[in-house]
């Protein structure tokens, strides 16, 4: 049975679906005003791995990842660039999709956008007002009464008084309590607005996910996930809204992925250590970034540096090197095998991808040693469960030839000619020259192949 670490209960629990016929997962997605950064990649890959593994184990999954296409940052950025909000969000949704495709992220079963769910948000806010959990303030905004929801703080494991003492909360004369959060923002000059019973305006950020998850997965679903930075206040506020409105649990399991640090420091634009996915992919293949992320447990923090991602790249190359020599007969994945037992044991334990990857390395070693076709199949098929090892091995190992200023094939031909003439000094010279350029040669079965080593 799959065990999941539940952020709500702070312990591992056996996964028991609400409905065995279909499990429902909601992961908080992007706010589309800029390029996705490496922290977004962490969350995308983590929940894609979870989604893939459930499907591999035979579950029917409905996976929903939302898009926030209206908020303060979007409005500000559109105004700075002198374009419409729709033009800005369309641009960065397209860029996000390109990043996801590069990282081999499966498309979600539904990808709701906030602006398509305004009526549902208005309805939920109205219900919260009727239940006394929200109020229409004198400035035109609608706020949630945090102290009226007795379980506020249960996800972040803090009491309301602890939150009040520990947070730097801006004084707002219109709030009944400084912890109250906005559900509806009154219309301001030059900003988009929708009509509502509480006046023209637009939704607050937290209400979006409460409504989109309910409309696509129901009021009570299996798993809600996102980055650890969303646990408070975003997910805490979602629980207050959804459970306050529907009088039932929002999600049974809450899952949060860890942060990515840069050279052991928190990633921050102010520190100059902020990287978009695209900037990383200018230096490393996308699958190396995915492999790097999967090489650390999804709940643990990752330290990104040139050394750590290079190590990941070398590890991935070792696996592809094994696949570069396929057997004469490709076998189907067996129903039972000791390797499958080990792999599933690792992944069933809260999706332990680093342990699963270590098992893949053992499989690669076994295939290199025995050349038994079953190990090739296990390596390829279990790699697919993690979303890796599906490229042509030779193409992956050789990389992009566009950045090479030499004709490798001609140099290999010259070396082969030198070897045929038993000119070993010239043969060695060519090999050494290629090695100095980051090209490794391998002579096998009368043929010479090459791969990049740097």
UniProtKB/TrEMBL annotation:
The record lists Zn(2+) as bound by 28, 209, 234, 238
Question: What residues bind ATP, as annotated?
Answer: 269
- Boundaries of each Cysteinyl-tRNA synthetase class Ia DALR domain copy? 342-397
Needed co-factor(s)? Zn(2+)
- Subcellular compartments: Cytoplasm
Please tell me whether the keyword Nucleotide-binding is annotated for this protein.
yes
List the molecular function annotations (GO) for this entry: ATP binding; cysteine-tRNA ligase activity; zinc ion binding
From the record, which residues define motif 'HIGH' region? 30-40
Q: State the top-level EC class.
A: ligase
Q: Where is this motif: 'KMSKS' region?
A: 266-270
Gene Ontology CC annotations of this record? cytosol
State which Enzyme Commission number(s) the record gives: 6.1.1.16
Keyword Membrane listed = no
* Cofactor binding notes: Binds 1 zinc ion per subunit.
Q: Name one Pfam family in it.
A: CysS_C
Q: Which UniProt keywords apply?
A: Aminoacyl-tRNA synthetase, ATP-binding, Cytoplasm, Ligase, Metal-binding, Nucleotide-binding, Protein biosynthesis, Zinc
Coiled coil spans = none
Protein name as catalogued: Cysteine--tRNA ligase
């Amino acid at each position: 049975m799959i065990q999941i670490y539940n952020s709500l209960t702070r312990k591992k629990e056996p996964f028991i679906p609400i409905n065995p016929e279909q499990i429902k997962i909601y992961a908080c997605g992007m706010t589309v005003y800029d390029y996705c950064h490496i922290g977004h990649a962490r969350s995308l890959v983590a929940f894609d791995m979870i989604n893939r593994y459930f499907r591999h184990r035979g579950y029917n999954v409905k996976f929903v990842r939302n898009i926030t296409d209206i908020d303060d940052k979007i409005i500000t950025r559109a105004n700075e660039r002198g374009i419409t909000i729709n033009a800005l969000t369309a641009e960065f949704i397209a860029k996000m999709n390109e990043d996801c495709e590069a990282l081999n992220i499966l498309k979600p079963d539904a990808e709701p956008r906030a602006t398509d769910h305004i009526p549902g948000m208005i309805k939920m806010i109205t219900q919260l007002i009727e239940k006394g959990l929200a109020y229409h303030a004198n400035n035109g905004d609608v706020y949630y009464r945090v102290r009226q929801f007795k379980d506020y703080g249960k996800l972040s494991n803090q009491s309301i008084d602890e939150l009040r003492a520990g947070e730097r909360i801006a004084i707002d004369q219109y709030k009944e309590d400084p912890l109250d959060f906005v559900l509806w923002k009154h219309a301001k000059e030059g900003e988009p607005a929708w009509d509502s019973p509480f006046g023209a305006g637009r939704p607050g950020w937290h209400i979006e996910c409460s409504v989109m998850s309910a409309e696509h997965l129901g009021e009570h679903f299996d798993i809600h996930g996102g980055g650890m930075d969303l646990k408070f206040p975003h997910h805490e506020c979602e629980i207050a809204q959804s459970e306050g409105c529907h009088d039932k649990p929002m999600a049974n399991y809450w899952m949060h992925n860890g942060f990515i640090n840069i050279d052991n420091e928190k990633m921050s634009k102010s520190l100059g250590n902020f990287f978009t996915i695209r900037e990383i992919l200018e230096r490393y293949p996308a699958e190396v970034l995915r492999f790097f992320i999967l090489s650390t447990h999804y709940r643990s923090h990752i330290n990104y540096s040139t050394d750590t991602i290079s190590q990941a790249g070398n590890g991935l190359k070792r696996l592809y090197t094994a696949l570069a020599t396929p057997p004469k007969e490709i076998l189907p994945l067996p129903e039972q095998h000791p390797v499958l037992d080990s792999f599933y044991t690792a992944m069933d334990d809260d999706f332990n991808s680093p342990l699963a990857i270590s098992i893949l390395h053992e499989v690669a070693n076994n295939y290199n040693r025995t050349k038994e076709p079953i190990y090739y199949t296990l390596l390829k098929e279990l790699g697919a469960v993690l979303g890796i090892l599906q490229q042509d091995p030779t193409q992956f190992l050789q990389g992009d030839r566009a950045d090479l200023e030499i004709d490798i094939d001609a140099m290999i031909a010259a070396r082969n000619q030198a070897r045929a003439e038993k000119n070993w000094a010239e043969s060695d010279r060519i090999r050494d020259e290629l090695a100095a350029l980051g090209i490794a040669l391998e002579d096998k079965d009368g043929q010479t192949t090459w791969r990049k080593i740097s």
